[in-house]
Amino acid sequence: MTLDFGLIVQNLPEILAAFWMTIWIWIVSNILAVAFGFAVATLRRYGPGWLGLLLRLFVEVIRGTPFLVQLFLLYFGGPFIGLSLDPIPAGLLGMTVYATAYYSEIFRAGYNAVPVGHVEAAECVGLTRGQIIRRILVPEMTMLVLPQCVNMAILMMKETAILSIITVPELTLVVGAIGSQQYAFVEAMFLLALFYWFLVEVSGFLGRIAEARLSKFRFAHS
Amino acid sequence: MTRSAVLVRDVHKSFGDVEVLKGIDLAVPQGSTTCLLGPSGSGKSTLLRCMAFLEETTSGTIEINGQPLGFAETGDGRRTRLPAGDIRKVRSRIGMVFQQFNLWPHMTALGNVTEALVTVRGMKRKEANAKGEAQLARVGLGDRGHHYPSELSGGQQQRVAIARALALEPDILLFDEPTSSLDPELTGEVLNVMRELAGGGMTMVVVTHEIGFAASVGDKIVFLDQGKLLLDGPPSEIFGAPRHPRLQQFLETYLDRGAATLV
Amino acid sequence: MSMRLFELMLWAAGNTILLSAISILIGFVIGLMVCAAKVSANPFLRIPGTLYVSLFRGVPLLVQLLLIYNLLPAVGIMVPSVVAAVIGLSLCTAAYQAENLRGGFQSVPRGLLEAADMVGMSPWKQLVRIRAPIAFRLTLPALVNEAILILKASSLVSVVGVIELTRMAQNLSASSFRPLLFYSVAGAMYLVICWAVAGGGSIAERMLRTGSRA
């Protein structure tokens, strides 16, 4: 078995398009999921009790079932309830819903990790609840949860490979198909693995830099 | 006779089945320093937190400058909760200093001091900064405004917390064990600031274990034990002989710290 | 859904549990070795150990599974797909478990080891009597978490043709045109399994905590 880099060069445009697809779905779904996840965590904390319970159920169900089963349910089951989606929108939606549940848990823990005293101090100087959330809780929580958010985003990068199973033309699907056509599936997969590895390591490195820059905000007092 | 800055009448407070305060009556005269002493679990911190409305009393009333805090009596012995705006208004007369400082870690020292000036009092940023700088200078930290809490020592952090409370020009400052989480060599700087405030006529209520501070600065010593107010009087009377046996017992636990010689 | 189909789903759920349990166990053993290699002072052990963790955590499990499933026959090793699946899951979880174990061992308070030193315990005794038991307790929540992750990740072995819960739901959906039903049932079964593992984990944690107090 020899590694055939010609494989990449010959199919460069297709691979680049697939790479773009992976990155695009990853970024858009993660941005949406961070926003929705924050909303879910905030509503669970401050919203009415019934809504909190409902959202908790949503989070537990998403976190307790495989992403692949969720995707199958959405992609193959959707049409039976009038939700016929093409692979790409289905992948984007599935990924967003899945990531929302996980991000919401990070934010929930973040809310809880802000010391009660910091909120009490804000109450004592007369900040309203809205001001306390905006000015104290959210910024404090942001620096607490940033490392976990970076980790989650990296986990999600790897999850995008699963979208290939519902035929989203992302990296795994396209590289796998090229490999099969050229009777070099193992080589293709090997190169793909190396590429994902590179991507994950680079993201992790960038995340650590971001963290270091925020480190002076770390808690002065345990 | 001057009106009391804080007037506590028959306050009870329970957490679940546990009654922590069992009918407290207390008057804090204006311009005085009142020190709350007592063994741990005596309810002194809870009483202070009730005065800041961080805890809601189960029954009884608290008045700040003659205004009811949180609840008003309806005449038939019951009480109603006051509107949030009224609570906010009465509370704005009170400043609080916590044991754990509770500085907001994402804001500089100056940011901590000016936050409420801008967001609550609606002051212009520039004006607030000038005022914040002045308050920091008052606690001896004029040059530390742009440091983050994590870059300051515990004593400096607590002084920033005092400046944060002072910036809102409260009539009454409440201190909840302000030196208890500091290393011994850092308590002095905080106590000195408090001493100066007391000298300047600020009304203060201080929960503390610093017996020496209480004896020398306090105008009034209040000793709580098991949720009840056991003693209430000037230091000379409270610490002078004959001492109440419970107080004597309490003070003896501080003997090894040399506290007994201080009083 | 008829009783017969439900039984098929239950049988497939059993496969999922079995597959995951075996992978977790093998992964724990490999993980211990990788962890030992990674914290070793010897660079010939440390560098491969570090690389192993980085690689297996940096590549999507699906890609790992496809690679192993196709690589084994390419180098002349003929094994059933279920074996390839177990190898893939074990190698992957080993990397995560190695990191968990490393965290556990590093979180053992120094003072406890110094105390052991002062009463004259040999380094080996310290490892067996003090470090390992405490590290294991500290790692248990992470292990339970990893078990749940692998249970869910095992759904991916359906792509190499292993008949576990997801693959069964896929087959039954295709033959009956009722994907909503079968994927929902599969999802519910995963949920029950994951909750059971999480519940068992917290019971185990509580028992260990009681033990430590005695």
Automatic annotation (TrEMBL), chain A:
Residues 19-207 form the ABC transmembrane type-1 domain. SUPFAM superfamilies: MetI-like. It comes from the Bacteria. Keywords: Amino-acid transport, Cell membrane, Membrane, Transmembrane, Transmembrane helix, Transport. GO terms for molecular function: transmembrane transporter activity. CDD domains: TM_PBP2. Pfam families: BPD_transp_1. One of its GO terms (cellular component) is ATP-binding cassette (ABC) transporter complex. Its main location: membrane. It is a multi-pass membrane protein. PROSITE patterns: ABC_TM1. One of its GO terms (biological process) is amino acid transport. It is found in: Cell inner membrane; Cell membrane. The chain crosses the membrane at residues 15-41, 53-76, 88-104, 161-179, 185-206. Belongs to the binding-protein-dependent transport system permease family. HisMQ subfamily. This is Amino acid ABC transporter permease.
From TrEMBL, chain B:
One of its GO terms (cellular component) is plasma membrane. It is a peripheral membrane protein. Residues 6-251 form the ABC transporter domain. InterPro entries: AAA+_ATPase (IPR003593), ABC_ATPase_HisP-typ (IPR030679), ABC_transporter-like_ATP-bd (IPR003439), ABC_transporter-like_CS (IPR017871), MetN_ABC_transporter-like (IPR050086), P-loop_NTPase (IPR027417). One of its GO terms (molecular function) is ATP binding. Its main location: membrane. It is found in: Cell membrane. Keywords: ATP-binding, Cell membrane, Membrane, Nucleotide-binding, Transport. Coiled coil: none annotated. The keyword Nucleotide-binding applies. Belongs to the ABC transporter superfamily. This is Amino acid ABC transporter ATP-binding protein. It comes from Fulvimarina endophytica.
UniProtKB/TrEMBL annotation, chain C:
It is found in: Cell inner membrane; Cell membrane. Its main location: membrane. One of its GO terms (molecular function) is transmembrane transporter activity. This is Amino acid ABC transporter permease. The chain crosses the membrane at residues 12-37, 49-69, 75-96, 134-160, 180-204. Gene3D superfamilies: MetI-like (1.10.3720.10). One of its GO terms (biological process) is amino acid transport. It comes from Fulvimarina endophytica. Keywords: Amino-acid transport, Cell membrane, Membrane, Transmembrane, Transmembrane helix, Transport. The keyword Transport applies.
